[in-house]
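Known limitations

Files may contain more than one protein. Parsers should not assume a single record per file. Below, a two-record file is shown to illustrate correct handling: read the sequence, read the token line, then continue until end of file.
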Amino acid sequence: MRVMCADVGTPPASEPQHSSRDLAVRTSSLVLYAILVGLAIQYGIERFLSDNATWITYVNFGTFLVTAIRFFHGNSIYHERPIAVSPLRFMMDFYFSMATLIVICVVGRSINEPVRFIFALFLLCAVDGTWGMLSMLTQRRSRPKHFIIWSALSFTFAALTLAVLWAGLAHKHWLPPVLLAIVLGLTILDYVLCRQLYFGTRQ
């Protein structure tokens, strides 16, 4: 899960604001997210520096790092947004965040294991895409088109990784650079299509 695509500026007066308790809970959640993402990056660095690391490990580490940073960036914006949500919606966000973090840790620990690495990327995008769809269906005040964009990006990459596993291409030497290029491309698309959210510029 990344972020809820809501406007991050000052909300209309009719929209409920965070209470101090809401802010405390969201700040704690962000701290937990930062710790676990840091732990996932540590796992990746350990494998990056291991004696049995190869050039494939290094390329996969780049793919993992871009993905982890992108997810953390989005999640930090999500926790800063000034619009309150229902307890049920917050619970959904929290559990999808935890599922995402667990999978990110698996991705970091699998950079030198091609099949597990690609399967972990598939799970990550499947979880994120599912969260985006549910958010689009339950969010009333923000613009659903952002959730559509995120779900489309995540499900597209999930389908690609699943096809790679199905075709038995996980051990091909040309695959890691291709995956890194695709992840970089998706990241650029994410930032361009959701630039209002990330950078506050006009769309």
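...continuing to the second record:
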Amino acid sequence: MKDLGISGSEENTSEWSESLPSVESLVSGFKIPLEINRGVQKLILDYTLGAAIIGLISKSLVGDIDLLVLALINLKMVVDIWLRWGKPKRNKIQMIVVILCAFLVAFASAFLVRLIFYLIGLVIPLIIVLNSGLGHATLTWVFGRATNQFFLNVTQANSSTLKQLLKAHQTYCKKTTLGH
């Protein structure tokens, strides 16, 4: 192996480490967005359950204030998602437009769910009780997922990063197999 200039010495490993980022740093760069995404998904589920509970108890206890509470819950959820992703530097106008479009899609989804359960409730009257809770939950879930997807796209790897990861992994594999 000495003839090829490949050995497990510090000289050769330093050449490799200078030219490429470490495999650990690249892999950790991919793990962090995945961990944040997992945490945000749990956060969205928590807000969705809260919105569903507000929707289910709204007619008996809260009255018409439930829409204001739902709006505040969704606003708080968007701020929490933004903070979890570390306040990514994006074009503010683009962020506002995307979040407004996400809200419109979520509102349309919630409207369709409420309409479907209202129509089912005409046949099975007990289903109408779930109508408001399912509508609130759908709005919060779709709005949260769309907002999360917007911030997740900021951190997704491009092809050059993936090529760097592959090259670093190949170099690491060569170093470990030829060095022993």
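Parsers that stop after the first record will miss the second one. For reference, the second record is described as follows. The chain is about 80% helix and 0% strand.
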